[in-house]
Prior knowledge:
Mean pLDDT of chain A: 86
Distance between the termini of chain A: 46 Å
CATH superfamily of the largest domain in chain B: Cytochrome Bc1 Complex, Chain C
Distance between the termini of chain B: 35 Å
Radius of gyration of chain B: 24 Å
Oligomer: heterodimer
Low-confidence stretches of chain A: 1-19
Strand content of chain B: under 5%
Bound molecules: protoporphyrin IX containing FE
Amino acid sequence: MAEEGSAVRAVAGGSTAAKQIEVPIRKAVGPGDDKVHTWPHLVRSEFICAILVTVLLIVWSLLSDAPLEEPANPTKTPNPSKAPWYFLGLQEMLVFFDPWHAGVTLPSFIIVGLMVLPFIDINPKGNGYYCFNDRKYEIMTFFLGFHILWVSLIIIGTFLRGPGWNWFWFWQPWDVHKVEAMTAVNLPYLLGVRNPTLDFFVGAALVIGFFVGGSALMYWWVVHLKGREFMRRWGGVRFGITAFLFLNMWGVVLKMLMRHLFAIKYIWTTPWVNI
Amino acid sequence: MAWEDIKRQITESDVWQSMFRHGYEDTPRNRILMVSGNVWLHLHPSKVRRHAVRMRFTWCMGGITFLMFLVTTVTGVYLMFYYRPTAEYAYADMKYLEFDMPFGMLMRNMHRWAAHAMVIAVWLHMFRVFLTGSYKPPREFNWVVGVILLVLTLLLSFTGYLLPWDQLSIWAVTVGSNMARATPFLGHEGPGHELMGVNPIYDARAFLFGGGEIGPHTLLRFYILHCIFFPLITSLFLAVHFWRIRRDGFSGPPL
Ligand code: HEM
């Protein structure tokens, strides 16, 4: 059944009718009666908005000065050293993951994940208007990634991390001598595995199990929620990419919780990388 | 009606008529010509759907992001007149700019706060585009262009962070770039680095810094990236972004 104003477009490489998705191709060229002249209606708002924002910016700049500290001194490391605020979410991840993962892999996933978003989301509804009910899961996932992970980690990194990247509440003074016991252990160790070889395999099983089990669960859940027909239209590639990115997102949350609640350091240690 | 009276009194006064010989006739034809005949305004279509004009649809955030880009460009040119990207002068030039240059401090503040505002505005813009589902067909590609613009915005801001050459800037950039050290295969502390034969002065971070540590070479590198390379690339992508908004049509609820 075709949605109103949508057409059926064959997916590249799609064999026959089996692989078709519904894609709205409507452009904003409906009946002219909904339209108004750009001049004056749009230009006027833009002009007023630009003036207001510029005035605000000037007032802000008159009231508060950009910081300038002592001259650069490569031999004197400040404690804490913080990245610019918009990267503090990533710096916060360094607590939980090795630098190659927190600093390179996860940011790549964020960028690639954002870029593939229009291609993995095949819900034709909710195009061009605000509506929660038409696309609950998309919106909740975006909230998890953007608000919960990105924004709250920036807030933590900016306000709650002090010397030694230790946790300080708003009312606690920054004590440079604060020492935190390094009690974190690896998950296999916590589960009673003390043999280093076995540790490797248990860790691998946990990580692979998380992704395989998670994907299976997600598959079941989507089929349960939307039906087989939807899953067929969505296709294996889209499902695979979505599940992988989605599980990575939850993986980050899970690992953060495990560290905060159970002091777990790594899940899987290998001679090359640790996760 | 009072407004109309005041308007007539002004436009019929001798002073006004000495300046403006003939009026602007508010006809549909003229309204369209105002937009299509103006090199700047014709970025817009000459007519738009009613909802697209409303603040509560767009939050004006794409426009504000662009405005912040323009403000940083203008104030940035002013700062460039007084700033020399070398380790011996950079910091002194910042002081000079703050205390001796007319409007130096104001220009610096506006440049910095506009850069921060641009980062916030671009996130809110992305959030708006997500909430209205405007990345859905036929605008998938423009969303991808947008993500590239988001990354460019962050890179613009990050490369500028080093230029004051004070403690805040070099350490923030050190911390922010340490990740490059850990890039798999390409960083000397990343997994698989042995395979590539990279070392502290020959790896991804050294490429970014122009050497093994942050130093004068890094300052020049970031200066060129910040003032020339990223602004140019960003302008190119902005051109594509705006062009595609026109081509794909602005999103809106079904008619
Ligand atoms: C330097 C950064 C950017 C600038 C200056 C910019 C500017 C604009 C402007 C002026 C509009 C017109 C409508 C509006 O104001 O909302 C727009 C629309 C749009 N932007 Fe951006 N943008 C930027 C970054 C982004 C990002 C990060 C994304 C998404 C990831 C994005 C995706 C879009 C899309 C899909 C549209 C079309 C919206 C529609 O049809 O409703 N842009 N952009």
